[in-house]
Amino acid sequence: MKKFTQIICILLTVTSMSAQQEKGIMGYNNWLNNWTEFKPNKVDYGEANQILAGNISVNTKLMKKNIYVLQGNVYVTNNAVLTIEPGTLIIGDFETKGTLVVTKGASIIADGLETDPIVFTSNRSVKKAGDWGGVVILGDAPINKFGNVGSYNLDLDPSLTTYGGDNVASNSGILRFVRIEFAGKKVKGVDTFNALTIAGVGNKTILENIMVSYAGGDAFAFYGGDLNATKLVSHRVVNDDFKFTQGVQCRLYNSLAIRTSYLTSNKDGSRCMEVKSYEKKNETDFTKKQTLVVASNITMLNDSENIKADIQSGLVKEAIYIAETASLEMKRSVISGFNPAVLLDSKTEINNANLKKIKFEEMYFNQCNGNIFTEYNSNNEDLESWYGNTVFFNVMSQSSNKETFIDITNPKKPDYRLQLGKITASSGK
Q1: What SS3 class is residue 147?
Q2: Which residues pair with 301 in a beta bridge?
Q3: pLDDT band, very low/low/confident/very high, at 14 (cuts 50, 70, 90)
């Protein structure tokens, strides 16, 4: 049985060290600086002086000089454009479950700056995950449901929450240098909102430098569409960090998921990445594209001081779950502190066709209780042999997070880039 290559630092050649430095999130500088906030519950955001409520049916601009409270379900309709100035603060109302919905045909231009991000947060004095709804963006790009139409229901207006169509290159706007904090409210008897829901959105939409913290549901949920996304950060959310479903075609690059052993969903657990082709099989058109995620330079870690003890206590599960018919191609990424690193749906047969759809290359598996398994099957010799082939350059280690990453204990400016021999993971991108 072929094993994943064991890293022995003193034997690494110059060439192999150069390769290692390209794994996980990357950049000559720590791109988390300035615009992120890892302790949002400690920030005094001030009181709102403007109310956002009802429908926004004409082009509207939110100004940095104001602080807005998002009351109830607020819809951007009628092909209107909602523009948000850099540095603007929008506070989701706890009592009315403030939620912003950008309907199909409308768009949002939330184009912040690294030194002046746009912030969505909670209006409670003691902020907690799930204080308000979230941000929902609906477009007319393809999904794999029958009729090419879906509806994001929960307790929203069904006439305003349809998504899907034929426009792969549709443009729902820009989210750049944006933070979304304490979203993901539970709707009694229905489900939980996600912090950011992207449904049927096309590839002209810009999704860059977006941080979700302390969400009650998923951080980033992608339902169909065709997307490029980079520098997304998910921090201590209750459910999944990245959820992909309904035939989404997504290219995800240079992004980060930070989990903790003590936050998890009661329903179906929580993962860094869940890759599915459908939510309901009887609503899915299998003649259409099924979910494909191409991910590179992703860092996924369980931020625990004693990962082995947490795993033994049953507090930690897999980092990635891949359901039947879905495809994931992952390269140059880091998975640290999970049980195991990857879990395949029990319905997925281990054959050449499926192994070609599920690729892991140049990976760094660290402190994981096993690498890649099939659900309910403790024997992973076939998968270990396949992904352990030297042609894939996958490696594994058992180093602490403090040794693995540059500076994850810095409370204000943590650095989650990979560290080997005190050399920063960087490529200049």
Answers
A1: helix
A2: 258, 336
A3: very low
75: left (phi over 0), alpha (psi -120 to 50) or beta: beta
Answer yes or no: is 327 within a domain: yes
**Phi, psi (degrees; rounded to nearest 5) at 148:** 60, 30
Alpha-carbon distance of 359 to 350, in angstroms, equals: 13
- Cα–Cα distance, 134 to 70 (Å, whole number): 10
- Tell me the HSE value of 302 on the side-chain side, using a 13 A CA sphere: 32
The band of 21, judged by pLDDT with boundaries at 50, 70 and 90, is: low
In whole angstroms, give the CA distance from residue 153 to residue 80: 21
Q: How many CB atoms lie within 10 A of CB 362?
A: 18
Provide DSSP, 238-279. Answer: SS-SEEEETT-EEEEEEEEEEE-TT---TTT---SEEE-S-S
Cis peptide before 40 (omega within 30 of 0): no
Give the pLDDT of residue 20.
46
Query: What is the distance between the alpha carbons of residues 265 and 327, in angstroms, rounded to a whole number?
Result: 24
pLDDT of residue 48: 93
- Is 269 a residue whose pLDDT tops 70? no
- Whether 31 is in a domain gets the answer no
The reply to whether 28 falls in a domain is: no
Q: What is the mean pLDDT of residues 122-137?
A: 96
Please tell me the total count of domains within the chain.
1
Hey, which bits of 13-126 come out as E strands?
50-52, 55-56, 60-62, 67-70, 73-76, 81-84, 89-92, 99-102, 107-111, 118-122
CATH number of the structural domain spanning residue 366:
2.160.20
Q: Is residue 280 part of a domain?
A: yes
Is 118:154 a contact under the CB 8 Å cutoff?
A: no
DSSP 8-state code for residue 357: H
pTM check: above 0.85:
yes
Contacts of 48 (CB under 8 A, 6+ apart): 67, 68, 69, 91, 123
Q: Find the domain containing 241 and state its range.
A: 47-372
Residue 200, pLDDT score? 98
